[in-house]
Amino acid sequence: MRYPRDMHGYGPNPPHANWPGGAHVAVQFVLNYEEGGENNILHGDAGSEAFLADVVGAVPWPGLRHWNIESMYEYGARAGFWRLHKLFTEAQLPVTIYGVATALMRAPAQLAAMQAAGWEIASHGYKWVEHKDMPPDIERQQIAEAIRLHTIATGERPRGWYTGRCSLNTVDLVSEEGGFAYISDTYDDDLPYWRVHLGRPQLIIPYTLSANDMRFVTASGFGNGEEYFQFLKDSFDCLYAEGKAGSPKMMSIGLHCRLVGQPGRYQALKKFVDYIKGFDKVWIPTRLAIAEHWAREHPYVAPEVVPSDLDQAEFVARYGSIFEHSPWIAERAWAGELAPANDTAIGLHFALRTQFRMATPEERLAVLRAHPDLAGKLAAARRLTEASTAEQASAGLDALTDGERARFTELNEHYVEKFGFPFIIAVRDNTKASILAAFEQRINNSAETEFATACAQVERIALLRLQAALP
């Protein structure tokens, strides 16, 4: 009953990126070099390529070559690459290459130009093929072979990785390889983050398919260069404004030689490059530079506790008293669907609160009755739980005058006689005076209204307790 997807991430308060120079946004250009690494029976594949080319709706041809699509990929190598190379070198902008290993082995001139420009060359896998059905052992072998060929071609092993057409196992397998400063096979954030696999943190730098020129050849994508430019501009303007307001982010832009390298599309990219050069406080790095910056500024810090990772005994020991003397709520929450979203105070409160709300009226009444009287006999005898003691002290209920104590005693007795459970209020939200005022007002409620009010206060007390224990 553990849901592995992280639907919380950084939540409403992401870390401040602290980009170099106080930049409001980091804009990162990726050029995918896949030409010569795509599906082709010449490469030992079962059929022709059908993905990301200007034959929309193409399907693989088993056992055959597809001359038209082959030549479209060749355009990327022969013409598109050099057009983009000229743009970025003349603008003196760094680029990250996602290089398919077998494509790099067939591109000596392009590779030399990449290296002469000082571009980062990350790995884009062994071949530009689909991995979704690939057995883990085969994919692991292909990761190793990609690293081997990449090292032969470039003279050094890659420090960044992006498969693209990945499997459910890809990020885990690349993390296990252990030699990468970052992995980019996710699209789930505007900032890098640490992902723990088998006890080891791996930096993830999310990529993009929205600000990606692949949308020129996909349904509901860019119909022309102006649409592409407008999307890039709007994305940049939004992120720049957020950064100026104090929350800097990252903008990834994915490019392909055979797609945006076409003249009509290229003009939109050039227009965007010219546009962002008119702004200050814009950092344009490689992905490796982002990884190195993040590792310095935001190194991995292991959390003190990850609730969804705990076994039942530890989970109940830690959270069984969040709802006063009612460990069964924690037991049921642990047996339910916990996920990374439940590892914060709000998330764990939701899981516990859900079990409280799903309980029978009799079970919920038992939780209410488990709470002590405010400033009552248990407090006088110092027999409250540690949490209740601290809570009552926070509102000064441990230092009452004789008159105040007499009034609380009178109200407690009247309240319990009427409702059958003690008066409950989140004292950390209140003062002694406001508690007395609420007591005197609520004692006039109907039984149904007061039961609902008391249950809501029990939930509020639980949240405050968790906020003191978790981030």
UniProtKB/TrEMBL annotation:
Protein's UniProt keywords contain Ubl conjugation? no
Q: Which SUPFAM superfamilies match?
A: Glycoside hydrolase/deacetylase (SSF88713), UraD-Like (SSF158694)
Alphabetized, the UniProt keywords read:
Purine metabolism
Tell me the domain of life.
Bacteria
Looking up Pfam families in the UniProt record yields: OHCU_decarbox (PF09349), Polysacc_deac_1 (PF01522)
Q: Which residues form the NodB homology domain?
A: 67-285
**Summary of the function given for this chain in its UniProt record:** Is involved in generating a small heat-stable compound (Nod), an acylated oligomer of N-acetylglucosamine, that stimulates mitosis in various plant protoplasts.
Instruction: Give the family, as the similarity comment puts it.
Output: Belongs to the polysaccharide deacetylase family.
NCBIfam families found in the cross-reference section: UHCUDC, uraD_N-term-dom
Q: Which PANTHER family match?
A: POLYSACCHARIDE DEACETYLASE-RELATED
Q: What is this protein called?
A: Chitooligosaccharide deacetylase
Q: What is the lineage of its organism?
A: Bacteria, Pseudomonadati, Pseudomonadota, Alphaproteobacteria, Hyphomicrobiales
Question: What is the gene name?
Answer: puuE
